[in-house]
């Protein structure tokens, strides 16, 4: 049977360690039994002194708070492990210290992080190969005053004989108007 001190000690160890701490496989069931016993004792007001009942009720309230804080700390550590594991992999020891529901949480979070990373890398590849983002190296044949590009960005001014890398669509317009020519990369 678990005691109030066992619950407090579990929180203390979790709080002052970077790794997930080992809790007995039946820790949660034992905690539920502990709560049930304390509730029964608190309801036996007629049989116990009022000071004793007040103490039991306070212990019941405190033990719930301690348990909630313990679970919150473990969730934070699991989130940290997800980020570490997404970059480097997870230590078998850390995974062994998790409850089954924590392992499930970890796996789902890992799936989500991997999916987000995949979407990010796909977006990067798409943007990189997107023809709208292609650039052209131009040699300006005349002075060109400052102007606003297709995306709202200010470009210029450009001096005669200046070389600049600008978006391909705008480069095509400037070349078509005879204000610049494309510099070949050869």
Number of H/I helices: 6
Total DSSP E strands? 5
* Class based on secondary structure composition and strand pairing: mainly alpha
For the termini, the CA-CA separation is: 80 Å
How much helix is in the residues? Answer: 55-70%
Radius of gyration over C-alpha positions, nearest whole angstrom = 33 Å
Strand content: 5-15%
Element-by-element helix/strand order = HHHHHEEEEHE
Side-by-side strand order of the widest sheet? 4-1-5
**What is the second-level CATH architecture of the largest domain?**
Up-down Bundle
CATH class of the largest domain: Mainly Alpha
CATH topology of the largest domain: Methane Monooxygenase Hydroxylase, Chain G, domain 1
Give the overall form: rod-shaped
Seen as an oligomer or otherwise, the chain set is single chain
> Largest sheet, if any?
3 strands, antiparallel
Descriptive keywords:
2 domains; Ribosomal Protein L9, domain 1; 3-stranded antiparallel β-sheet; Methane Monooxygenase Hydroxylase, Chain G, domain 1; mainly alpha; 186 residues
Structural overview:
This protein has 2 domains: 4-126, Methane Monooxygenase Hydroxylase, Chain G, domain 1; 131-182, Ribosomal Protein L9, domain 1. Helices cover 60% and strands 10% of the residues. It has helices at 4-15, 27-43, 50-88, 92-96, 100-129, 168-176, and strands at residues 135-140, 147-148, 154-155, 163-167, 180-182. The strands form 2 sheets. The protein has a 3-stranded antiparallel beta sheet with strand order 4-1-5. Strand 2 and strand 3 form a beta hairpin. It is rod-shaped, with a radius of gyration of 33 Å.
């Amino acid at each position: 049977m678990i005691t109030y001190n066992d619950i407090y000690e579990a929180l203390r160890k979790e709080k002052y360690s970077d790794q997930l701490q080992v809790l007995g496989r039946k820790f949660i069931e034992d905690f539920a039994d502990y709560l049930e016993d304390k509730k029964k004792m608190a309801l036996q007001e007629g049989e116990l002194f009022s000071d004793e009942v007040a103490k039991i009720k306070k212990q019941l309230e405190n033990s719930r708070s301690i348990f909630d804080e313990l679970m919150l700390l473990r969730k934070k550590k699991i989130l940290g492990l997800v980020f570490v594991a997404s970059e480097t992999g997870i230590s078998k020891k850390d995974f062994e210290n998790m409850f089954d529901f924590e392992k499930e949480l970890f796996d789902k979070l890992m799936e989500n992080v991997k999916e987000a990373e995949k979407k990010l890398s796909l977006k990067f590849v798409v943007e990189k190969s997107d023809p709208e983002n292609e650039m052209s190296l131009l040699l300006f044949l005349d002075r060109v005053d400052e102007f606003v590009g297709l995306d709202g960005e200010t470009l210029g001014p450009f001096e005669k004989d200046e070389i600049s890398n600008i978006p391909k669509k705008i480069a095509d317009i400037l070349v078509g108007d005879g204000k610049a020519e494309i510099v070949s990369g050869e």
